[in-house]
Write the C-alpha cells for this entry.
Amino acid sequence: MTEQLTVSEYGVVSEPRALRFERLLPGPIERVWAYLTEPEMRAKWLASGPMEPFVGGKVDLLFRHDDLSPVKEERPERFKEEEHLSKGRVTRYDPPRLLAMTWGGAPDASEVTFELTPRDEEVLLVLTHRKIANRTEMIDMAGGWHTHLAILDDQASGRTPRPFWSTWTGIKDEYQRRLPPEE
C-alpha cells in the first residue's frame, strides 16, 4: 500500500538543475547532525562509510538499499549490485548546522547541501542537490532523496522504516509527472 503524500512533502526544482527538499524532524539538532555525519547513523537511512569532518575531507558513501528496512523486497532489475560505493569531498562543514559535499567522484560532480535549523523541539532539514546533469537524472535523484528522507523521518521518529525499492519506484513515477520538461 502506498502512503498518501501532501504537496509539501515533495521536493521542488529550486533553480536550474537543482532540487530542494524540506523536512521537519524530531530534535535535538545534534541528533539530526549525527544522522548526517556518523557512519553508523547515516547507514540507517542513506549510506554508511567514512567522512573526514573538514572542508576537503573525503566522503565514501556505501549504499546498501536492501538494509534500510526490515521489510525485504526484490531489487529492481537495473540495480543488480547489492551495494554501490560513491566517493565525494566535503565542500562546506559547519557543525551542527551545515554540511555540503560533492556527489560522485567525477570532475563535474553534483553537490548536496544539508542545512539544519532548530525549530522548538524539531529541526528543519533543508537538502539541496545542485548541478544535476539532466531531467532523467533529476527524476531518479528526486525519487531517491524523497525515499531516503522518508526513511530518515521513520528512523528519527521511532517508526519501522519503509522499504526502499517499492517506495522509490512509486515516488519516482510521481516526480516524472511533477518535474518540468527539459528546456
